[in-house]
Amino acid sequence: MSRKAALFLYSNGNILGSLLALLGLVLFFLGLIKSFWFVIVLGLYGIGFLLAPKNRTVSFKINQDLSIEELQKSLKVLSKEVKKRVSLPVLERVNSIIETINSLLPHLSKIESNHHNLHIIKQTATDYLPQMLNTYLELPTAFARFHHIKGNQTPRDILIDQLDLLDNEMKQILVDILKQDTEALVTHGRFLKNKFASGENWLG
User: Fold this and answer.
1) Domain total for the chain?
2) Which of 29, 140, 149, 173 is a good FRET partner for 201, with 20 to 30 A between their CA atoms?
3) What DSSP state is assigned to residue 34?
4) Which domain holds residue 172?
5) Is 63 within 8 Å of 46 (Cβ atoms)?
6) Is residue 27, in this structure, part of any structural domain at all?
7) What is the rounded average pLDDT of the residues 154-178?
8) Is 153 helix (H, G, I), strand (E, B) or coil?
9) Inter-residue contact 101 to 121 (CB < 8 Å)
10) Rounded to an integer, what distance in angstroms lies between the CA atom of residue 14 and that of residue 7?
11) What share of the chain is helix, strand, coil (3-state, %, to 5)?
């Protein structure tokens, strides 16, 4: 099955439309509707498809030019917005990343404005994490939870893996900063850039 077909199959409109069409078939088999039953079933599907709630378009954006205090506030807002849309395992990982970023932010004033690591930390907070969530939340809920797209993994499984990876790297960067391990910082920063800055859809 193609990705486009799967997205349609799991869409809210198709699910609700199919349920109403099934109701129409039940009424037909019970003898409650006879004439034009096929038209009625198609009509019920169309009504369900049109009335189903559409996936809300999401766009988490955080300006790179914010001050440390403003960035912390923006991340707090991001956490509150995500809380309404994702499962607990996803939320826990997002909050863990935000907590690590908040631990890193006080160190930014000690880093030169053009330093590679300053860019990576800000890029994670303002680009990598928000864009990852945008990509996931634009998917139909049923597709994200149940459709297998990579081996035996659903989009939610893949998101959790990506968040774990990002969280571990950010934690390691914090350790490297505290140890003043410049070489390790460059290595982790380069890894994050190569992994998350390509612009490719991580969902495949």
Assistant:
1) 2
2) 173
3) -
4) 68-196
5) no
6) yes
7) 87
8) strand
9) yes
10) 10
11) 70, 0, 30
